[in-house]
Design a protein that fits this description.
The protein is α/β, with parallel strands linked by helices. The protein has six helices and twelve strands. The chain has an eight-stranded mixed sheet with strand order 3-2-1-4-5-10-8-11. Strands 6-7 form a two-stranded antiparallel ribbon. Strands 9-12 form a two-stranded parallel sheet. The longest helix is centred in the N-terminal third of the chain and has 23 residues.
Length: 245
C-alpha cells in the first residue's frame, strides 16, 4: 500500500511538472520573454558580475540572462513544481521555494540586484512583497508588472486561476496603477525610475493617455535604486508617452 501511495504521489508530481512545462513553453510566452529581455539589455544597466535574487522565476526562462553576464544568482518561485524544473535546468545554482505573499520574516541574505519580472501582479499583498524585496536589495530592484491605466493610487485586487502554473498561487492578484507602484518604491528607495522606452510587445503601452489595453494586460517597468543612475534611457517621472526599442 505504501509503495502504491508513493507511486501515485510521484505520478501527480510528474503530471504537474508536465503541465508547468507546457504552460511556460508556448510560443506566445517565449516571445514575450524574448522581448522583455531584449529591452532589459538595451538599458545598459550595471548588471554584469553582480549577485542577483530572482523572484517569481517560474521555470527559469530569464535566469540564463544573468548567468551569461557572470552573475551569481539565486532563483526562487512559490510553486514546488516550478522549483523542480528550475533545479533540473540549472543544477549549478541555488534555488529557493519563496512565496512573496508570505515572505519570510528572518531572511537576511543581501543581493546587489533583486529581479522581479512578471510576479507582482500575481500577489494579493504586493506592498509586503516590495518591502521584502527592498530589504534584500543593496543596489537596485528591477520590477516589471501588469498595471492599470489611471492617475489614482490604487492596488486593484483581482481574481486569478490558481490552477494555472503561470498565475497567482493564492488565486488572488492585483493590477496596481503606475502611481501606486511608484509610491510604494519611493518608501524604500531614494531613486525610482521608469524607462523612456518599452519592450517591443503589444502588452507594453507607449501612450498612457489612450486608456486602451490588449486583452486587459498592460505592463510597465520600474527600477528602485539606492544610488543615482546616470542613464539617459531612464526618467524619475511617470511618463505619459514612451517609445519602443
Amino acid at each position: 500500500m505504501r509503495t502504491k501511495i508513493l507511486k501515485i504521489i510521484s505520478n501527480n508530481i510528474l503530471s504537474r511538472i508536465g503541465i508547468t512545462k507546457n504552460a511556460f513553453y508556448s510560443d506566445l510566452y517565449q516571445s514575450h520573454n524574448k522581448k522583455r529581455l531584449e529591452h532589459l539589455a538595451s538599458l545598459g544597466l550595471d548588471i554584469a558580475g553582480r549577485t542577483v535574487l530572482e523572484v517569481g522565476a517560474g521555470i527559469g526562462d530569464h535566469t540564463n540572462f544573468f548567468l551569461e553576464k557572470g552573475c551569481e544568482i539565486v532563483s526562487s518561485d512559490a510553486r514546488e513544481e516550478n522549483i523542480k524544473v528550475l533545479a533540473s535546468r540549472y543544477p549549478e545554482i541555488k534555488v529557493l521555494l519563496l512565496n512573496l505573499d508570505e515572505p519570510p520574516m528572518n531572511y537576511e541574505e543581501l543581493f546587489d540586484i533583486v529581479y522581479c519580472y512578471g510576479l507582482l501582479y500575481h500577489l494579493s499583498r504586493p506592498a509586503e512583497a516590495i518591502d521584502f524585496m527592498a530589504k534584500c536589495t543593496k543596489k537596485f530592484l528591477l520590477l516589471e508588472t501588469c498595471v492599470s491605466f489611471g492617475n489614482d493610487v490604487s492596488v486593484n485586487l483581482c481574481r486569478e486561476n490558481r490552477l494555472d502554473p503561470t498565475q497567482a498561487l493564492s488565486g488572488s492578484g492585483c493590477r496596481p496603477t503606475r502611481k501606486w507602484v511608484y509610491k510604494q518604491l519611493k518608501k524604500h528607495f531614494e531613486f525610482v525610475y521608469l524607462p523612456i522606452t518599452q519592450p517591443n510587445h503589444e502588452e507594453f503601452p507607449t501612450d498612457w493617455t489612450s486608456f486602451q489595453t490588449k486583452n486587459g494586460l498592460s505592463r510597465s517597468i520600474f527600477i528602485g535604486s539606492r544610488e543615482l543612475l546616470k542613464n539617459s534611457l531612464l526618467t524619475e517621472t511617470i511618463p505619459l508617452k514612451q517609445t519602443r526599442i
